[in-house]
Every structure is written in structure tokens, then in C-alpha cells.
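Limitations

Structures in this collection are predictions, not experimental determinations, and the ligand pose is part of the prediction. Treat each record accordingly. The example that follows, with thymidine-5'-diphosphate as the small molecule, is included so readers can see exactly what is and is not provided: the inputs are given verbatim, and the output is the predicted complex.
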Amino acid sequence: MPLKFRQVIFDLDGTITRSAPGICASAAYAIDNMGFPPLPEDKLTEFVGPPLMHSFMRLCGMTEAQAAEATRLFRERHSVIGWKEAAVYPGIYELVYSLKREGAIITLASSKSRGLCVKTLEYFGLLPFFDGVSAPDEHNAHTVTKQELILAALKVAKADACMVGDRVFDLEGARQAGVCSVAAAYGYGSAEELASCGPDATAADPAALRELLLGDAERMPGFFITLEGSDGCGKTTQSRLLKQYLETLGLDVVLTREPGGCPISEKIRGLLLDVSSLGMTDECEALLFAAARQQHIHDTILPALARGAVVLCDRFNDSSIAYQGFGRGLGDWVRQINARALEKCTPDLTVVFDISPDEALRRRLGEQAADRIELSREALQRRVYEAFISLCESGEKRYKRLDAGGTPEQIFDNLRQTVIKLFTSPPGEVE
Ligand code: TYD
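Predicted complex:
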């Protein structure tokens, strides 16, 4: 087993997540609303870490009463959007994923309030990997020490655990608690600060941390996620949001689409959607989609999966089954002409955005010029919708039907949770 420690205790901010953007933006919001002159970026970053009151007084020259009001304004913004403006350090999500796969016990020991810790781990899709969260409740936030938090998190013999953190409190707390201390030198602590407490080990970046904790353990695999649904279901907007979100997890994300997704297949896309191709037979259309897919898999999808990326594909083979197989009535032949390309490339997850044909039509009205396929579509759309629903009900576990009738935010929250479930379920056991 490549695990160097049976239990890894992580600090949150500066070790797993980088919360500075949300803190700086919330400080700037408070300063602006108080009518004080704006601070330059390097001054704003000084808000990360020390008590807020203190920073407003020192950096802006506020009185105590003004600083108290500024702190209230800061929280007003930070509690709603600021905390989400954080990001996971690239490489950390994959590290936590691999630690879990190798059987490590993973816990958090943070001085931030427990509510915020749980909310942050949940939002960034990390909570299911954690076996415990040791953090103060609101009432004892300033009285509990890091040593106490580490001891409360401990689930194995001290010699089998390590604490990873970026500040002097984390490393000294680890020493006082009697566990190995690992400095995350990529976080907010300066080199002098870290050197002053003589950690047992130092990781310059998440890759070095991985080497330290896991040696050459297996890496997080690539994931192939397809997004499907009738025209007008909103999946294109959602796939962009999903890409942005997965990038805040520090993952390598490739967003691609069908027909298209690589130079040759984009040319085929041009042929398929061109209104001057109106005389195209259904069979020719199905073969062109299959041809474009074969090239796309070869040129874009497989290379990305091989390097461990998350590939998001806006439409894939299920669109051929729904549009050409059911919609145009070409049946099982469509599966056959795609079978060879798909041998090496089945999606891990297929999200079907479910919107009734009437609602989809209502949404599409007012859009710019319809393409060739869209022109021949009303009856086709209904058959396509039914085809997608029957695929979802086929019993194949990779299909997840998602209600696409709500607001973009509600739809995205469901999508986010569905994707996180894929990452955090044991391989082959997505429910
Ligand atoms: P596009 O403009 O990308 O539409 P959307 O935003 O709805 O995905 O055009 C793709 C069209 O091609 C769409 O109407 C669905 C259709 N299509 C098929 O008929 N078969 C397929 O295999 C694929 C991938 C798409």
C-alpha cells in the first residue's frame, strides 16, 4: 500500500482552497459601501488571515464603530457569494481522490467555523471523501486551539497521522498534538514563517504533497460525461457552467461538442447543419454523424481521457439514437454504425436534460435562424423527447434524467451534485 500515513488531517484555507478572491472582493465591497477610497490589490490581500476589524482600522483608517459596520457589510457579501469565489488548488482534488481510493482516513482541522467548513467542502465536492470535520462552532471560534482541533480529529495512533497546513498555527499545533507536520508551502504562509517552525516535511506544491503522501499511487482517472436532451433544453449553457465549476476544483476539463469537436468533424458539422443540404437522405445524415464521431473520439476525447481530464461533451451517441434512430426511424442500424467507434469510449455519465417538447418550443421561439435539422422538426422533436426518456428508463446506470424546467441556478445545482456523485462513488457504482 503506497500510503505514508493512515490518516491525513488537512487545514482548509491555504491548503485545500484558496479563498483570497472572495475575501478581497468582500472587503472591497465593504470599503466601497462605507464611502472610503478603494485599496490597491496588494493591500486588499492583507485582509486574508487577520481579524477583519483590525484590518479595516489598520488599512483604511476606520474608527472602531466604522470597522464594526464594515465587518457587517463584509459578512453580508461573503456569506452569500464571497465564500463560493474560492477555488481548490490544482492537484488537490485528485490528491484527495487518490488518498480515499488508497484507504486513507481524511479529516479536516480548521479554525474557520464548522458551518463554513462543511459548506465549502460540500460545494467543492470534497465532503464525501472526508471522514470527519474538526472545526469550532460559532460560540467557541476564538477559544479552541489548533492542537485541540487536531486531537479531536485524530482517529489513529499519533505516529500514523500527519497534519498538512500552510500556517504556523497548523504546524505548531501538529507538534503539540504529537503528529507529523507537513507544510503546504504553496499556501498563505511565507517561507520565513514556515521555516521558523521547523516542519517535519515541506511540500512546495500539490504535486510534491502527493509524492509525499502517496508515492506513485494510481491517479484519478479521466471521466467522460455527455450532456443530452431535445433542442432548447438548455444543456449548452449548463455545460459551460459545469466547465467553469470543475475548473474551480482545479481539474483539467475539456468541453467539446457533437457534431464537431475537432477540425475534421467541425467540417462535417458544417455539411450537416447547412440549409443547402436539405436534400440529404436520413441514412447519409446518420453516417455523417457517425463519421464525425469516430474522428472526434480519436482526435479529442481519447487523448484527453488518457491524460486524466474530465471530458464534457455537448451531445454524443445518444443524440444519434434519439434523432436518427427514433426520430428518423432508422432504428437499430444507428447503433450498429456507431458501435466500432464506441468500443473504446462509453460515457461514465450521461445527463439527459428533461424538458417537455412544448416548453422547449416556447424557449426556442425568438432564437436566430433555424438550421436544416431544426426546420424539419416539430414531429421529430416529440419522438426525440420520448426516445431520450426511454433511454433513461432503459436501466443502464449511466443515464441521469435531470429536470430542466427550473431556473438555470436550480438546474446547475442538480447537475453539480450529479457530477460530484460520479467522482465520489466507488468505480462502477454510480447510483
Ligand atoms: P446544435 O446547433 O449543436 O444544437 P444543440 O444546441 O441543440 O445541440 O445542432 C446540433 C443538431 O444536430 C441538433 O438538432 C441535434 C442534431 N444531432 C443529431 O441529429 N444527431 C447526432 O448524433 C447529434 C450529435 C446531433
